[in-house]
C-alpha cells in the first residue's frame, strides 16, 4: 500500500510544484488560510483520485500485486497525507510571514473539513465519475470566491464566523467533533470499498 | 504434468452473458492458445484468471493457490499483456519503471534495461506515443523484469502488423526456452500464432469445448468435402457443422477415422485450420438451436 | 542436425522430424552418442510448438533411435544390428502379409506367388 501512495506522489509531483506558488498567492490574498488549505487539500486528493479513474488504469492496478482494499485505502490515506503537506505550508507561511504559530484548533478544523468533504466526494466518484464532480466543485468554489469578493457578500463571512465558532469551542467539544468526523470518514471508506469491490473493468 | 491455472466448475453471469461450468487447465512450461469467436467468453475467462472478476460459483486456482487467501502472492508471479494501453499515458517508460519497480519483490533492473535495449524501446518518450507493438513489448519487458512465471495475454495479436507478429513469435519462443515459464494467450485471429501453441483451448458460447495438444487437432478433426447425395440424417450426425451448396458439401468432423471408414474415397479430407473449427462450431450450434 | 519442415505437407510435422532424424541416423550422419538439440531449442529453431518436438523425440525414443538422460538431453542410441534386423523383419512380414492378402483376393495360388517373389528377388540382384 505504501507503494501505491508513493506512486501517487510521483505522478502528482509536477502538479504539486505547480500548485505551490498558486497556493502562496492565495495565502497573500488575506483570505482565510483554513479556506485555502481546504481547497488545495481537496484538489490534491481528487487529482490523485482522477489519475487512477480510467478503467484501463484500474485493470493495470488490479493486475499488479495489489488488492482492491489497498487500492481504495491508499486514496483515503493519501488524502490525509496531502492535507498534512498543505498544513505544513500554512505553518511555514504563518511562521515566516506572520511570525505566529497556526493554532491546533485551526489545524484540526482543516483536517476535519477535508475529511468531511472527501467522505462525500470519494464514494460519489467511485459510484459515478469524478470528472464532472471535480470540475463542478472547483467551479463552484471559484464562483463563490469571486462573487464573495466582488460583492463583498457575507458568504465568506458566514463561513468565517462558523469557522470562528468552531475554533472557539472548548477542548472536549472539539474532541467530540473530531471523533464524529473520523467516524464519518471510516463509514465513507467502507462504502467506497464496497462499491469498488463490485466494479468490473 | 503440473497445472499452472485450474478452473473448476466456474460459473459467471455478466449481464446477459454467461460462462457455464468452465473446467480448464493450463499446463506448466507450455504455450496455450485460447481460442474462440468474438464474445464467447474469452475476456471474461481471462479476467477470472486474473481476479479482475470473481466467479459466482466454482474455483479458480493459479499456481495451485486461490485468490481469496493468496491474491498478492499469485499476482507477484503473473505478467500481463492487455489488448489496450493500460499504463499512464502522460509519463515516460523510465517513469513507469519507477512506479512499477516497488510493486514486485523480484524486480530486476538489469533485465529491464536489457529488454529495453533489445526491443529498442524509448525510455524518454511518453507512453501515449507508443505504437501497439511497442506497448506489447513494454508489457513483456515488465513481465520479464519481475520474473513472471505465467504470462497472460489478452488478444496480443489484434492490431499488430504481420512483420511484428512474426517477431513476437520469436520473442515468445525465446521466453519459453528454459521451460520454466508458461504462456496463456487468447486470440480470435489464429494465423501464425497457432504454430507455436502447444495446447489449444477452445471455447464457444461460454462453454469449454476442448483443450488438446495442438497436433491432435489435425489428427482428430478434418474438413470433409463431397457430393451432397452422401448426406442423410445418419451421416450428418458425424459432422459438427455443414456448409451445403449446389456443388456439394463441406463439413467439419471431430472423428476423421470414422469418416474414412464410412465414406472411404467418396470424400476428400483436408487439414482443418483453427478458423475452420471456429466457423463450423458456430454454424453447428446455430443449426441445432 | 538438418531438418526441413514443410507446412504444406500432408505428413504431420512431428513425423517429418522423425523421418529426417531416422534417416540421418541410419545414414550415419548422426553418430551414436551425439547430442540432439534440446526440444525447446529445436522448437525455437523451427518455429514450431514444443509439444510437437516433444512428440517427435518421444516417438524416436520409443523406436530406439535416441535415448534421453534427465537433465542432460537426448542422444543418438548405439544402433544395435540385431535390433535393426528385427525391426526390418517385422516390416517385411507386414508387407508380405498384404501381398498374400491381395493374392488371395484375386485367387493367385501360393506357388505362383513364390514364383513371382523369386523372380523379383533375382531381378534385384
UniProtKB/TrEMBL annotation, chain A:
Keywords, sorted A to Z? Membrane, Transmembrane, Transmembrane helix
Superkingdom? Bacteria
User: Which Pfam families would you find in this protein's record?
Assistant: ABC2_membrane_5 (PF13346)
The record's InterPro entries line, in alphabetical order, gives: ABC2_memb-like
- Which sequence ranges are marked TM in the entry? 9-27, 33-51, 76-96, 108-125, 132-151, 174-196
How is this protein named in the record?
Answer: ABC-2 transporter permease
- Upper lineage: Bacteria, Bacillati, Bacillota, Bacilli, Bacillales
From TrEMBL, chain B:
Domain ABC transporter: start-end pairs: 2-230
A GO molecular function annotation here is: ATP binding
Tell whether Ubl conjugation is among the UniProt keywords. Answer: no
Q: Does the keyword Zinc apply?
A: no
Gene3D superfamilies according to UniProt: P-loop containing nucleotide triphosphate hydrolases
InterPro entries in UniProt: AAA+_ATPase (IPR003593), ABC_transporter-like_ATP-bd (IPR003439), ABC_Transporter_VariousFunc (IPR051782), P-loop_NTPase (IPR027417)
Q: Which UniProt keywords apply?
A: ATP-binding, Nucleotide-binding, Transport
One short Pfam name that applies is ABC_tran
Q: Which SUPFAM superfamilies match?
A: P-loop containing nucleoside triphosphate hydrolases
The record, for PROSITE patterns, names: ABC_TRANSPORTER_2
Q: What PANTHER family does the entry give? A: ABC TRANSPORTER ATP-BINDING COMPONENT, ABC TRANSPORTER ATP-BINDING PROTEIN ALBC-RELATED
Q: What protein name does the entry list?
A: ABC transporter ATP-binding protein
From TrEMBL, chain C:
Q: Which InterPro entries match?
A: Tscrpt_reg_HTH_GntR (IPR000524), WH-like_DNA-bd_sf (IPR036388), WH_DNA-bd_sf (IPR036390)
Q: Does the entry feature the keyword Transcription, yes or no?
A: yes
Q: Which UniProt keywords apply?
A: DNA-binding, Transcription, Transcription regulation
Where does the HTH gntR-type domain lie? 11-79
Protein's recorded name: GntR family transcriptional regulator
Q: Which source organism does the UniProt entry give?
A: Cytobacillus stercorigallinarum
Amino acid at each position: 500500500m505504501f507503494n501505491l501512495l508513493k506512486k501517487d506522489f510521483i505522478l502528482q509531483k509536477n502538479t504539486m510544484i505547480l500548485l505551490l506558488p498558486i497556493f502562496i498567492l492565495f495565502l497573500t490574498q488575506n483570505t482565510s488560510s483554513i479556506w485555502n488549505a481546504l481547497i488545495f487539500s481537496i484538489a490534491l486528493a481528487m487529482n490523485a483520485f482522477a489519475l487512477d479513474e480510467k478503467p484501463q488504469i484500474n485493470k493495470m492496478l488490479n493486475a499488479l500485486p495489489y488488492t482492491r482494499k489497498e487500492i481504495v485505502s491508499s486514496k483515503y490515506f493519501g488524502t490525509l497525507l496531502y492535507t498534512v503537506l498543505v498544513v505544513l505550508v500554512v505553518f511555514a507561511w504563518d511562521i515566516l510571514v506572520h511570525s505566529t504559530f497556526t493554532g491546533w484548533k485551526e489545524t484540526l478544523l482543516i483536517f476535519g473539513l477535508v475529511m468531511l468533504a472527501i467522505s462525500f466526494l470519494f464514494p460519489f466518484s467511485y459510484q459515478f465519475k469524478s470528472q464532472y464532480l471535480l470540475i463542478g466543485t472547483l467551479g463552484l468554489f471559484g464562483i463563490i470566491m469571486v462573487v464573495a469578493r466582488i460583492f463583498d457578500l457575507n458568504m465568506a463571512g458566514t463561513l468565517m464566523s462558523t469557522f470562528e465558532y468552531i475554533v472557539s469551542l472548548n477542548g472536549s467539544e472539539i474532541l467530540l467533533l473530531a471523533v464524529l468526523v473520523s467516524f464519518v470518514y471510516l463509514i465513507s471508506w467502507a462504502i467506497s470499498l464496497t462499491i469498488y469491490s463490485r466494479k468490473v473493468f | 504434468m503440473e497445472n499452472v491455472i485450474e478452473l473448476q466448475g466456474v460459473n459467471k453471469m455478466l449481464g446477459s452473458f454467461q460462462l457455464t461450468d468452465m473446467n480448464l487447465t493450463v499446463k506448466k512450461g507450455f504455450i496455450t492458445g485460447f481460442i474462440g469467436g468474438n464474445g464467447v467468453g474469452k475476456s471474461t475467462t481471462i479476467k477470472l484468471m486474473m481476479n479482475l472478476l470473481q466467479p459466482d460459483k466454482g474455483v479458480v486456482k493459479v499456481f495451485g493457490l486461490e485468490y481469496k487467501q493468496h491474491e498478492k502472492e499469485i499476482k507477484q508471479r503473473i505478467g500481463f499483456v492487455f489488448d489496450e494501453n493500460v499504463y499512464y499515458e502522460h509519463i515516460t517508460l523510465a517513469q513507469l519503471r519507477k512506479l512499477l519497480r516497488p510493486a514486485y519483490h523480484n524486480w530486476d533492473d538489469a533485465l529491464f534495461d536489457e529488454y529495453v535495449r533489445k526491443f529498442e524501446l524509448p525510455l524518454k518518450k511518453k507512453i501515449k506515443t507508443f505504437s501497439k507493438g511497442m506497448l506489447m513489448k513494454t508489457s513483456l519487458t515488465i513481465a520479464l523484469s519481475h520474473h513472471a512465471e505465467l504470462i497472460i495475454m489478452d488478444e496480443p495479436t489484434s492490431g499488430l502488423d504481420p512483420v511484428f507478429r512474426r517477431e513476437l513469435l520469436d520473442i515468445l519462443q525465446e521466453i519459453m526456452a528454459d521451460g520454466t515459464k508458461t504462456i496463456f494467450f487468447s486470440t480470435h485471429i489464429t494465423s501464425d500464432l497457432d504454430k507455436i501453441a502447444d495446447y489449444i483451448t477452445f471455447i464457444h458460447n461460454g462453454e469449454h469445448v476442448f483443450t488438446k495438444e495442438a497436433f491432435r487437432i489435425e489428427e482428430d478433426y478434418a474438413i470433409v468435402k463431397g457430393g451432397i447425395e452422401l448426406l442423410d440424417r445418419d451421416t450428418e450426425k458425424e459432422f459438427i457443422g455443414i456448409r451445403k451448396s449446389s456443388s456439394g458439401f463441406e463439413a467439419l468432423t471431430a472423428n476423421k477415422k470414422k469418416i474414412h471408414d464410412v465414406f472411404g474415397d467418396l470424400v476428400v479430407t483436408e487439414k482443418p485450420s483453427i478458423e475452420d473449427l471456429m466457423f463450423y462450431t458456430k454454424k453447428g450450434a446455430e443449426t441445432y438451436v | 542436425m538438418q531438418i526441413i519442415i514443410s507446412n504444406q505437407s500432408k505428413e504431420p510435422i512431428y513425423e517429418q522430424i522423425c523421418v529426417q532424424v531416422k534417416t540421418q541416423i541410419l545414414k550415419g550422419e548422426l553418430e551414436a552418442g551425439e547430442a540432439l538439440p534440446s526440444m525447446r531449442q529445436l522448437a525455437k529453431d523451427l518455429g514450431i510448438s514444443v509439444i510437437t518436438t516433444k512428440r517427435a523425440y518421444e516417438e524416436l525414443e520409443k523406436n530406439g533411435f535416441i535415448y534421453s538422460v534427465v537433465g542432460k538431453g537426448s542422444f543418438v542410441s548405439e544402433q544395435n544390428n540385431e535390433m535393426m534386423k528385427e525391426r526390418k523383419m517385422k516390416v517385411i512380414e507386414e508387407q508380405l502379409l498384404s501381398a498374400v492378402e491381395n493374392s488371395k483376393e484375386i485367387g493367385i495360388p501360393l506357388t505362383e506367388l513364390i514364383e513371382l517373389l523369386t523372380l523379383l528377388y533375382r531381378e534385384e540382384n
